[in-house]
Amino acid sequence: LQTMNAIKANVGMNNNLRGQVKDFNGFLRYWSNVAFLPRSAFSSLSEGFTVATKTGNPIDGLRTMYDGFRAAFETKGTQAMRDISDMYGITGEIADDMMMAQRTGGDFTSKKRAYQNKQFFKSIGLTQITSGQLSATTKTGQFFIGKLAQHIAEGTNRKNSSEFLISELGIPKDKITEFAKWVDSNGGGKLSTEFGLGNTEMAALYRTALRRFVQTTIQVPTAATRQRYASTPVGQFAFGLTSYINAFSKNVLIRQARIAKEIFAQDKGYTGADRAAYAMQVAMLPALMLLAAGVGEMRDEIFKNPYDKEKTTGERFMRGLSRAGAF
Question: What's the whole-model pTM score?
């Protein structure tokens, strides 16, 4: 029984609330979203730039932000991009609803609260913006995986760092060379609706790599990756308000520390190009945080409350770091 309870807790199924207590818990979670997250769509506009911390290229970040904004509003020329992310199960109506629920503490046990939560996030535009960012990040991820595969397959001076980065995406070490050659021989990172959708082992690994790239860039915590307390009734309520910071810490801050360590590794045969690739990724973190802080300041000016007291420079600095996901 204890083993079963532990398994249920770790996959987000441990919810023993009944009747009115369960409904009240759902109401609190829904109320907290309405009370604290009405402007979250505006705050999330900079999230697409997070890809730059993985690719080391600020142009990738800016392009993903732009493409994400276009995809959110389904503008001309974005249909293929949205179709591809749908085909990989990254976006789509069901995937979008599940993603928004996971971001706010997990699925609602009440259909009524689940529907209310779904409609709330759609009404403020967060569902559309996040879905657009997921589609844009899928596109960037395809090109990035293709570039890593090319470095490995051709044995360039960035081969060793590319092997490390591609292993981060879930490719086993003993399959990296085979996987890289398969990706490179099949067009690499070219945008395609068919690439990676087959039933072969390599296609399955490609889907794993692409989904991991997307889910650790656009912060989408899952039942399997969030803390155990977040699967409890009380924990869901608290986690719903801190899920972004939690995911950002795991997927960006801790990873950046690991990448910074790789820059100075002496026993892995890294070339200057390898170390430069790592350094560019690390350099993108302060750029991302400045951008997020700037978007937060812009939001404050647009939705300015005349009754709020003027913040000091120090207070604004700390608020900017908090909004950027530092704490």
Answer: 0.79
